[in-house]
Each structure stands twice: as C-alpha cells, then as structure tokens.
Amino acid sequence: MIRKLAFFSLAAGLATIAYSQEQEEPPEVVGGSVRSAQTIAVPAMPTTGGAAGNLGRQISEVIASDLRSTGSFLPLGPGGIPTYSFEQAGSPTYPEWRNSGAGALVSGYVEPRPDGRMTVACILHDVTAGRQLASQGFVVAADDWRRAAHKCADLVYSRLTGEQPFLDTRIVYVAETGPKTNRVKRIALMDSDGSNLRYLTPGRTTVTMPRFSPRGDRLVYTGTLARKPRVFVLDVASGRERLLVPGGAVTFAPRFSPDGRNIVFSWARNGNTDIYVVDANGGTPRRLTSAPGADTSPSYSPDGSRIVFESERSGTQQLYVMDSGGGGQRRISFGNGRYASPVWSPRGDLIAFTRIAGSFNIGVMNAGGGATRILTDGWQDEGPSWAPNGQFVLFHRTQRGSGNATLHAVHISGGPARRIPTPQGGSDPSWSPLKN
Question: Are strands 28-29 and 373-374 parallel, antiparallel or unpaired?
C-alpha cells in the first residue's frame, strides 16, 4: 500500500444514432503522425540519511522512462546532466536549468523513515517562469520504490498535459513461449512499464482474453476444460479460480460490467453464438441477443447502459450497439472490410476496434459510429484495450511471417506505436484501472 502526502514546499516539510449506408465515410489513417514533445529535466534525486545512494538515480530513471513512454516529453537525464543537493530540491537555480534547454524540471529526494519505509518527494517546476507547479510526497515500502516513481511520473504527466494519470497501472496479457505448433500460453501480470512480472496460470491449458475487473482485483478469461473454451474468474491476490457457468457450456469472450457485478460473455449453443450476461458471483445466465450469425466480443459503455459487440448477422463481421438489457440493437460500422473486438473508451466517447481489410489494424470511431480513424499501420495489429485515461490503446502486433506477437501502445491521435517490453511473446493485453 502506498500513502500519498500533499505538501507545498520543503520548508513546510512533507506535509443514438443509427447510421445508414449513405453515411459511410472513408476512415482517416493517422498512424504516421508525430506529436510534439516537451523537454523536461529529470536529474538524479539526492538520497538522505544513509539510504542506498543509488536509489535516487534509479527512481529518476523510472520517472524519465515513464514520461518518455507517453510521447509528450523528451526527458533530459538523469545521466549526463547536473544533480542538486537536498536543500535545492524545492528551490532550484532556475537560470542554470534554463541553460540546459529544459522547459520543466522534476526534482525531489529520497528519505528513509524510522519504520523501515521511505518517503519519496516529487516536485515539478516551470523552469521558464521560475516557480513550482506541483509537489507531492509518497510513503512506500523500501522494495516498492518503483511505485513511487510511477506516481511521480503521473503527477508530472497530469499537471503538464491536463489529462488523467495512467502510469501507475498494470497490464495483464497472454505470455507465449515455445514453437508455434506446441505453444505454451500463460496469463502474465506486470507493471505498465514491463517490470514486476509474474505468472498467474501454469500453462497447462490454453488461455485467451484475460480482462480486469473495475477494481483490478479479479480477472475473467477464456481457458480450456475438456477441450472446450470456458470462462473462468480468477482472484489476482490468491490465484484461486472458478468456472463461471457450470456444465458443459462453450463460453468465451468475457468482460466485467463497469460496477463489477455482472459478466457479459458469448455462449455457443444449438448451432449459434449469442451474448449472455450473468452475475459475477454465478447464477443463471440471461440471453441478450438471438439473431442468426455469431454475436461476440461484448464490451460495456462506462455508465453500463449500453454494450458494443461484433456480429455476423449482416453476412460480414461488423460492430453493433445495444442497450445493456439487449434492446435497441443497431449497426455502427459501415466502412470497408470487417470490424472486430470492439472496446468502449473509459471516457465513453470512442470505441476502439480491429479493422480487417487486407491487414489487421487498430482504429477508433465515435461511440455512435462514424469519424473512423485507423491508428496503426502494421501487418497484423489486433486486440485493443484502453488505458484508464482513454488516451492510449494497447494491442498486440504480429510481424509478417514471424508467428510471434508482441505488445504495443499507440496514442489516440496516432504516431508511432510504442513497444511494451515482455520477456517472451505476448498477446491479448488488458490495461488495469489505476491502483488504489
């Protein structure tokens, strides 16, 4: 558990519209654009009281890496730039930092506490104006210092971009090892920068599509049982799992409702696949769709009132929206190619999807349909998942002829996709909510 301390200076201490074919429009491709980035200095933090002297530098390295990953900043340091003293953390010599070319500065310090934990102070400065913009302190366990760095990076990102934080989060995905004909797939969990990796399933059965609960404490995923796809619910802390729908039902593509009380999923029965919803603790599933053709990949809107899903009812794979009770079903995708794996943005304004038109690419459209933009230009990019602030889309990419998938993230305005480091191949990523 991390505890935040608000403080102001070091002297004070740490204190519904149905679209028709006539409304079809060609998608805008924005995958090649590049956003401007702000130069920001992130020197090594001083460490007081005999704590490991290198820790301040390590924390600054994580902060700089986090800020660089957003595409909004060009960090200077911590290597190759001056450091500062503990006393200068709150009152830096602004002219010297202006000469470095930085428009902003992240300072702070690391201080051990009598109880064995440590305080990490984080201070953001406007170098051009010569004033503090924000400051906060975090109390963490000694082995949880990376989390304090992520929280500091979130403070800087939010203050300078005006966007909600997203760096103190985790990513769950399917870790893939071994040859393509005998691949082992395990559910893996890691911080959003790829650190603190651990495996949640042993790899004895194939797993796909792990998805976080709204609180991040549970996962739903599709595993195999008696050689059939089945939906499981897994407790992240204990590792305990249970079958969602007892019996021999073929179930897959699960996702939690925004309040965590229900799970919506696909059920293949009697020669057709439809979407059902069931209490997250179990019970009798309730059918939401009944049209001919496979209905799958359901995803709730943030307020829980609607569900977007993909369906073949028109003869081709397209996106549809319905009320959470199953009423008002209407098609929202009409562009060239097929549309799959839709996910509603946390902000409610956009839907991310995989478009299949020769290649597989990630795109976004308005929640009611239209204004389609294709964000990536890979050969096989699929499986989108939103960052909790609705500004980035996570997905997996397979290079032509490789057979190996890797994780990437792209901003909703486009630009180069950033590779998310994993020690092996990875697919089906899902971004967690912010940690508490």
Answer: parallel
- pLDDT-derived band at 4 (thresholds 50, 70, 90) equals low
| The pair of three-digit structure tokens given for residue 334, joined into one six-digit string | 């009409």
The pLDDT-based confidence of 167 (bands split at 50, 70, 90) is very high
Other Cβ atoms less than 10 A from the Cβ of 302: the count is 16
pLDDT at site 11:
35
Amino acid at 290: S
Burial tier of 202 (Cβ tally within 10 Å: 0-12, 13-18, 19+): exposed
Q: Cα 214 to the chain's mean position, in Å? A: 12
The 8-class DSSP code of residue 27 comes to P
What average pLDDT score do residues 132-142 get? Answer: 95
Spell out the residues 6+ positions from residue 271 whose beta carbon is closer than 8 angstroms to its own: none
Please say if the pLDDT value at position 10 is more than 80: no
| pLDDT surpasses 60 at 357 | yes
Inter-CA distances, 218 with 23, 213, 263, 266, Å: 40, 5, 12, 19
Alpha carbons within 13 A on the beta-carbon side of 274: 15
Torsion of CA 203, 205, 209, 215, to 10 degrees: -60
> Taking the C-alpha atoms of 237, 407, 75 and 134 in order, what is their torsion angle to the nearest 10 degrees?
-40
Number of other residues whose CB lies within 10 A of the CB of residue 294: 18
- CA-wise closest residue to 133 among 153, 110, 107, 159: 159
Q: Closest Cα to residue 146, out of 69, 86, 58?
A: 58
- The angle at the Cα of 209, spanning 205 to 213, to the nearest 5 degrees, equals 115
Task: Summarize pLDDT for 175-225 with one digit per residue, the tens.
Answer: 999 988 889 999 999 999 999 999 999 988 889 999 999 999 999 999 999
The Cα–Cα gap between 145 and 47 comes to 13
pLDDT at 22: 38
pLDDT at 402: 86
CA torsion angle for 228, 311, 216, 257 (degrees, to 10)?
Answer: -110
Q: Before 433, cis peptide (omega within 30)?
A: no
Q: What is the mean pLDDT of the chain?
A: 91
Rg (CA), the chain: 23
CB atoms within 10 A of CB 231: 26
Task: Report how far apart, in Å, the C-alpha atoms of 55 and of each of 44, 155, 403 are.
Answer: 9, 20, 40
The token pair that represents 102 in the structure block: 């930085």
Q: What is the pLDDT of residue 436?
A: 76
The pLDDT of 343-359, averaged and rounded, is 97
